[in-house]
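Protocol step 4 of 5: obtain the predicted structure for the target chain.
Materials: sequence only (see below). No template structures provided, no constraints applied. The aim of this step is simply to have a reference model before the mutagenesis design in step 5. Sequence pasted as it appears in the construct record:
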Amino acid sequence: MGGSNKVQPLSSEVQQPLLAAVLYMIQTLAPHILSEAEAKRKRQAADRSLTSHKHPRHEAFLHNLERRVESGEPLELMTPAAAKDARARGLREENDPLAAVSLSALARECGTRQFYGAWLPALRPDLERAFALVGACAPYGRHAAEVEGADGQGHVACTEPLFSTELKFLVGYLATACGLAVAALAGMRHCELGELVVGCRQPSQEIAPGLFRYRLAGKLIKGQPLGGVRDEWVVTREVCEAIDVAEKLLGPDAAPGTSLFHPVFCDTTYQNFRAWVNGPTGQRLGLAPIPEGAVTPRALRRTLAVEIAYRPGGLLAAKLQLKHLSVATTEGYAARPGGAQAKFLAEINELEEERNIGILTDIYRDYQRGIMPSGPGARDLISLFSSVDGRLHELIELAPQLVDSDQEVVAMLTARAHTLHLGTANYCWFIDPAKALCLRLAGTPDADRPLAGMCDSARCPQATHHPCHRPVWEESRRTAKVFIGSLSRRQKTERARLETSVARAERVLAEIDQVAAGAAGKDEI
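Step 4 output (structure tokens):
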């Protein structure tokens, strides 16, 4: 196809640790980083109000040092660069025990902007005593809270002590994580991210008890009149959390309408974020390293579309409820059918068509090799394949030189491929809503899509099972048996329900294994 999307999705080796790191930063580290950023803002505001004309009394310094000793609070270190500069200028001696201690920070705490060298001789004994007792460290993150490591292997401090510049970088990594989260979980393009501003979150709407719809207001610029038109995205809770953190990073004085992602994260900011994840801090927090690979909003959008279309139970679903992302995208289209989210849904639908045709073609090739489908809907599917075989033979006899068998097979299977819906443990061929067991159970016979959450593929006449579904059924049987073993004698009702579940799983497994054995027997003959 000449107009097909050429952007390649991220590999699972990049996507999985990237998404894990982004969500860990937003959901676990963000409150602590925001707290330190606020402490820095307050400290800088207080420092700006100081003058160098006020000379604190000697007792003020002694009181400060005594307070530190009693509370065990370390003195403040200078940055390595500042300490090196002080030695180069002859302000500190190389072997001075106070060579790296920030005396200016001590002076600011006592009410003046500058520490004068003439004060040091009188204060040195008390300073050296305090330094020996409590030590010194960077000013931020001194009392870091313990958080669970990203690898689940115990708790670690959310951060080590940081200098001002290091905290600035950490805030930048969190801002990058927010942009990555929105791009990865909403499918927004670069330009659409750039139109998100402070106040873009709309009030959440409770559409059912405990079930909320989250929306973002933005602008649609491409192909629109100058200034763009108002647009709206329906998103998941995780995206709203990322927007909330991004707004807080701008500080309490950020005015409504201030751009959240300006400049929008680029390759440089992403590479800095990746270096932090792969570096000592990320490893201390238990984050998995992110391999090399280009990560852009376009690639993240393409990856999300492929995940929703091709892998509804795949890698992304292991970290998030992928169904919620799919529902949010569909609701966004319904809310604004001409909006940007509609184009994203169209891309997903195209991929679903390709996926369905590919799956059905593979099943047909299995059929030709003797690997039959099983399940209540197997007979109908086998009948379809038999008719396709018959039609192919007719075409080959009429014009063998004109028949491209693969192309003809796809053409004949396309109509049936449109009815395919992927279940967790089966394929649903939604041909006749009146026959769909899930719709009958729900009392919605006129629905245009199956209700996957109510699927009982062992009884539905439009469901089939294939070798790829065997691991799911095997896990279901194993889990049910484990639960049965943990039940007491009194839990008879629960035992009966689980035994029924085991029996159903064993029946499905036997059917899958039977057709596989039949195919193997044919190969031997």
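Step 4 remarks: The longest strand covers residues 211-220. The radius of gyration is 32 Å.
Proceed to step 5.
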